[in-house]
Every structure is written in structure tokens, then in C-alpha cells.
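Give me the 3D structure for Carboxymethylenebutenolidase.
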Amino acid sequence: MLAAALGFCALGAVAAGAAVVSPDDRRLETERVTAEQAGVAGLIARGKTETKRPAVLILPDVDGLTPHREDVARRLAVAGFLVLAVETPPADGDEALGRAVAYLAHHLESKGDVGVFGFGAGADGALRLAALTQVKAVVAYDGRGSEAVAERAEAPLQLHYAGLDDAVTATIPAFKKALEAEEKTFELFLYEGAAHGFEDADKPEAYARRPAELAWDRAIAFLESRLGTAPPVR
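Predicted structure for Carboxymethylenebutenolidase (234 residues):
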């Protein structure tokens, strides 16, 4: 499925480090995990009530688990997901990420299916993980696809692109053509006037409120449609 591109002329900005969900939000449990525990070092976030939840793996860009990415993890947890946010790209790459997917799939509070949420370089990894059977949905911001990714992908994809990110948007036509040729399920959104990192509140020079909010709403709806509605967090 291909969604129509939307244009945005004005870019909003917020103060660096602005958080939507406080680190000490009483509805949530957060903890650090090691690569020995989870395949990757990172942050676990989930609602305090013990129940089975859809699981999401967050893959950050090259700057790693910034305050904004931690906030994304808490926002997903408040939305009802069991979340593992990767601290830094693992040295053994996709093998470690595959172990992280398996960790989430078999977690005591997981329903078993896993979504992957990636940004920039992390989006590239997220797209590769779409080939794993336990991955049931991939959300990628500024991810560089390829014919090989399109051929192997099994999970539905939701792709978000910044119109001003020329190096990445140049890859869209070939990737879209390959996905269509392979008859893959995907949604593609291009935010005209938005720069790379438009959803990142830690980067006021790039942050664009309207497309960031729209992309977030689309991502949550997509994850819920593919992983199941998450239980409420109170």
C-alpha cells in the first residue's frame, strides 16, 4: 500500500531535550539490560502492571540512545508496548539485533510478535530485520532500502522520509520499485520541507512539530494494526 505524500511549508521547533513522558513517570517500569541478557545493551520500558504486551525494538541513529530516544521508548511504553531501546549499534550487527528480537519475543510480558522502530542508520537495520519471522512490523524513519531488503522482507513496512534529506530520498524510487515488484506490503510517506531528524526533539534545528506528530500517530496506528492493540497503562 502506498500513501500519498504530504507537504509541510513551515517547520516548528522545540527546546532541546524536551520530554513528552517524564523519566520518573509513575506508570512505568524502566531498567537497563546488558548484551548478555538481551542480545544488546539498552533500556527496557513497560507499564508497571504485569500483563502480556506487544513488543517493540527501537534502533537509534548513530548518536545512540539520546534523551529523545529514551523519551520515544517511554512514549511507546505509555502506549502499552513492551519496549527495548538499543543503547548503541552492536559490534556484531544484525546477529546481535536478531538476539534482541528473540529476547523480546520470549520475554515473560511479551505476546510473542515484535515490531521494530528505527531511525537513520537504525532504520537501515530495522529494514534488514523485516526478514525475521518474529518481526511483524517495521517503522523506519529515513531508512535506506535496497533490492535485497525488498526481496527478503516479510514484515509490513511503514516508511517515513524527510523531503530535504536528499541523500536518502534519492534512494526512494528504486526501493519503492523493488517493493512493488516483490509485491510487499508497505506504506510510504514523504514530508516535504522536513529535514533529516525532523522527529527528533533533541535537534531544534531540524525538528518539525506537525510532521513529527503526524508520523508518530501513523506509526502507533500501524504498530497496533500489526501487533495488536496494547493494553492500557495506568
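The radius of gyration is 16 Å. Let me know if you want a second pass.
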